[in-house]
Amino acid sequence: MSGRSEPGEIQVISLGDCPICGGKGTLKAIQHVHEIPYFGKVMESTIICERCGYRNADVMILEDRPPKLYSVRVEGEKDLFTRVVRSKSGTIELEEIGVKIEPGPAAEGFVTNVEGVLERVRETLLMAREFRRQEGDEEAVKKADEILEYIEAVKEGKKPLTVKIMDPLGNSALVGEKVKSRLLTQGEINSLSLGPYVKVEPEEGGGKDG
Ligand SMILES: [Zn+2]
């Protein structure tokens, strides 16, 4: 990649042939840089195949960010607008309902807010619930209903929710007034999944901190 990326600019890059369907020159990357106020520049990129419809999205923070744990306690409707930048290497935890969104082959990067994350979780839960219902797993259906109810209560500002995001590569964050953050410990970094990324170990020794 060459050139500087400015906010608002959309770039379309041809990636050649599609590895999924073999389409000749049908794979493209659409990149969009935008600025998140009080945070910095973020690049959203989506890879699309015009032929088979293959699609995958990711996000990258364009400034140097150390790997941190960001958390916010959502207690009212206003907190639902806390920005969420989640790259494929980011793990999201919704504490009170025991939901974790982890990196994996199907993981997608996105820029949204807490409300958007809750909507994604709701959709996934509804699908899982239907699957369990067909299997006759009443226990799992009941559990899903409880979580769905809790999500509704959070959206109405009636129940609290602690949202956390952790990314060993520093490409994910929460942005908002009430957001707290601290550096991830080496132990946490080691225990987090990286999704499609491969970790390059920095050289040991030197004992520098911060
Ligand atoms: Zn294709």
In short:
Residues 205-210 have low confidence and may be disordered.
Describe the overall structure:
The chain is an alpha+beta fold and 210 residues long. It has two domains: 1-63, Single Sheet (N-terminal domain of TfIIb), CATH 2.20.25; 65-195, ZPR1, A/B domain (Jelly Rolls). Helices cover 22% and strands 33% of the residues. It has three helices and twelve strands; from the N terminus they run E-E-E-E-E-E-E-E-E-H-H-E-E-E-H. It has helices at 114-135, 138-155, 186-191; strands at residues 10-16, 27-36, 40-49, 55-61, 68-74, 83-86, 91-94, 99-101, 110-113, 161-166, 173-175, 180-183. The strands form three sheets. Strands 8-7-10-5-12 form a five-stranded antiparallel beta sheet, with no helix packed on it. Helix 1 packs antiparallel against helix 2. The longest helix has 22 residues, at 114-135. The two termini are 31 Å apart. The relative contact order is 0.18. Mean pLDDT is 89; it is low at 205-210. It binds zinc ion. Residues 18, 20-21, 23, 26, 49, 51-52, 54 line the site of zinc ion. Zinc ion (ZN) binds at residues 18, 20-21, 23, 26, 49, 51-52, 54.
| Rg, alpha carbons | 19 Å
Helicity range: 10-25%
Name the CATH homologous superfamily of the largest domain: ZPR1, A/B domain
Oligomerization state: single chain
Unreliable spans: 205-210
Strand count, sense and closure of the main sheet? Answer: 5 strands, antiparallel
**Overall number of structural domains:** 2
H/E order of the elements? EEEEEEEEEHHEEEH
Strand content: 25-35%
Structural class: alpha+beta
Indicate the overall shape.
globular
